[in-house]
Amino acid sequence: MEIKVLGPGCTKCKATVALIDTVAREVGVDVEVSKIETMREIVGYGVLSTPGVVIGDKVMHAGSVPSRDQVRAWLT
């Protein structure tokens, strides 16, 4: 599963990447997390507040670190 985390590399963006990796290991799902850090690409997804999470070219979340339960729901 390919997941994109949108953000300039801030603390919340890094926390989002770590959370997705942790939950993926817990539920046994292989994920490939890529970071999109350029504002042009981020805005191209319609995200104005980071971090954002994109799965399958669909924005699933934006503006804060998602909850563990949200990430688990996306992965199962």
Note the main attributes of this structure:
76 residues, 4 strands, four-stranded mixed sheet, alpha+beta, Glutaredoxin
Write the layout of secondary structure elements.
Blueprint: E1 2-6, H1 11-27, E2 32-36, H2 39-44, E3 52-55, E4 58-62, H3 68-75
Parallel strand pairs: 1-2
Antiparallel strand pairs: 1-3, 3-4
Helix pairs in contact: 1-3
How would you sum up this structure, described in words?
The protein is of the alpha+beta class and 76 residues long. It is built from 3 helices and 4 strands; from the N terminus they run E-H-E-H-E-E-H. The protein has one domain: Glutaredoxin, CATH 3.40.30. Helix 1 links the parallel strand 1 and strand 2. The longest helix is centred in the first third of the chain and has 17 residues. 28% of the residues are buried. The model has no long low-confidence stretch (mean pLDDT 96).
